[in-house]
Amino acid sequence: MRTTTLKNVAFSVMLVGSIGLTSCDKNDDLKPTPNEVQQHFVFVHYVDKSAYVGTFGDLTPQATDNKKAFEFGFGCYLFAKGNTVLVPEGKFGDKVHKFTRGVHGELQKVGTMTFEQMAQPGEINFIGEQRAYVALHGRGKIALINTATLQKEDEIDLSPYAVQDNNPDPGCNVIRDGKMYVALNQLNSPHTSVPGTGAEVAVIDLKTKKTEIIKDSRTSVVGLFRHSDAFIDERGDIYFYSAGNNFNVANKEGFLRIRKGSDQWDTDYLFNLSKTTIKGIGKTGQYMIKSYYAGNGIVYSCLKVTDTEFGILKKDFQPVKIDIWNKTIEKLDLPMTDSNGSFAITRYKDFIVFGMTCNNGTGYYTYNTKTGECSQTPVVTAVGVPSSLVAFE
Hints:
This protein is mainly β. Helix content is 2%, strand content 42%.
């Protein structure tokens, strides 16, 4: 299946049209001067055809730029474990770049791992201090790598589970009790799945590689590569999300669940955001793209709240607090952003941090989970579109 990015949500299509892989070799000798201020955040900012990977210290008012950042090709984003930061190239490449964090939290580039041409590595799942699974979206495989040596140790081939071709287009995944649950996107064009494809997940026993496919027709495709998240809550239940049909209409949208102790979809659970009235707005939304699970059943995201046609730069995504246990949605008192500026969300101490492109400024806005206070302008400004964010205590 062709696995170029989704036209309606992938910033790359709108900015780049078609783009070749940008070489990262120029970064090998790039050594940003360490900042004596402890760096608690690692970011990716998109500017035209480039992705800039850099850091900033904390949530005191400040301005960031990309002058000391590492430059890569468009499409890179972040995964971290301990002091290891991995940057897969995603839709437009075949490499994973490795950084370690220095004594002040500054990034130090230490290596690059190259997969097959247009492997499209992403969705990295760490299973220890020195191993991680990497979804190869363009190849229909899951690679097990040693994060210390940057060598491939094993591989899981999902091609037998593809529809109409040899690639089921693996998306996001989680690991629970020795099994990996991988969303299969089953793309048949740059931005659509094979007609009739619903929620489809491969359940893989990581010891035996025995694989079972579970399907649910109540939603459309779940776990879209780079445009969705899967997570496990404190009860041990797994959640996948479907944005519906092509991000245009709220049709077959919502959260599905796999209960603890089961490898089947929970037929008693479906949470349609598009059919739930948003507290503070008084109407329903349509869908979300990326999200952050903060614990105790709470998800933070930016929800498309207008019923107008999709527009890449329209400020129609509202930051919200979603309770997946009680099926409620609450508006946060934060300005609206566009679809591009709805990807970078994380938690730092008592704050949920949103990287957004708003009329009030581009950068990092905060919601204080203790006091409810929300910033109306970016606390930390950014150059470019905030697209990925990781926080370290």
